[in-house]
Design brief:
Layout (H helix, E strand, L loop, with lengths): L4 H18 L3 H20 L6 H24 L7 H10 L5 H8 L3 E5 L4 E3 L7 E7 L2 E5 L2 E6 L7 H6 L6 E4 L3 E7 H10 L4 H20 L6
């Protein structure tokens, strides 16, 4: 029994779909799915009575897969950081994928500080979280210097978590460059990206540990 060429296309289409379900990379899966759907279309068109419903559905599935393929290629494009973004990424956010980091940056903005500019004010609620990449700070309580902080720390996280007025002040002691996230923007970002909440919480925990270690250097030795 000779095989109908159109039927061979059906077999080829199913082989392609089998390959789609066998690969692990979602991009290859979608390319094989597109090839399988398109290979099936001639079979439906060559029937004595054209089978339009499966042709239309094959085109719909193809269009959806091509759209998702485009999104994957866009997401996999190499991310190029500016010098400041690269410094910020290296200093505290290396556990994020580059594109996740870029999306986090969209929730805040860069700022420049002069010597004496505060980022925390004692007795005032914390409205934002900042991360200096240059410029030292001093932590003060009741007008007395408690400890110094170098660039590379998240400022305001502990008070932001409690929602209470800040018990300390934090002031730049020299010109500085830093990134700031208003709390409202950060909460809205985490609502849209709950997958990053655990990663960011880990960053906060490591930052708090580093601050405690620095604080120990200012405590009297027993």
């Amino acid at each position: 029994m000779s095989a109908n060429p159109a039927e061979l296309l059906v077999h080829l289409s199913n082989v392609l779909m089998l390959a789609a379900y066998s690969v692990r990379d979602i991009l290859w899966l979608r390319w094989f799915a597109v090839a399988g759907a398109l290979t099936n279309i001639p079979y439906f068109l060559l029937q004595p009575k054209t089978l339009w419903p499966p042709v239309i559905w094959a085109l719909v599935f193809t269009a959806i897969n091509l759209y998702q393929i485009l999104r994957i290629y866009l997401e996999r494009r190499a991310v190029v950081f500016s010098d400041e973004e690269q410094s910020l990424y290296n200093m505290g956010f290396g556990s994020l994928r580059p594109r996740e980091f870029i999306s986090l940056l969209m929730a805040g903005e860069w700022k420049t500080a002069a010597a004496g500019d505060p980022v925390l004010m004692q007795g005032h609620p914390v409205a934002s979280i900042c991360f200096p990449i240059s410029g030292n700070l001093t932590v003060r309580k009741d007008g007395r210097d408690v400890m110094g902080l170098k660039p590379g720390h998240l400022i305001g996280t502990a008070m932001a978590l409690t929602g209470q007025p800040s018990p300390i002040a934090a002031v730049f002691t020299e010109p500085a460059r830093y990134f700031v996230w208003p709390l409202g923007n950060l909460r809205a970002f985490l609502e849209k990206r709950p997958d990053l909440r655990v990663i960011l919480q880990g960053l906060v925990n490591r930052d708090l540990s580093a601050k405690l270690e620095e604080l120990s250097n200012y405590l009297p030795k027993v």
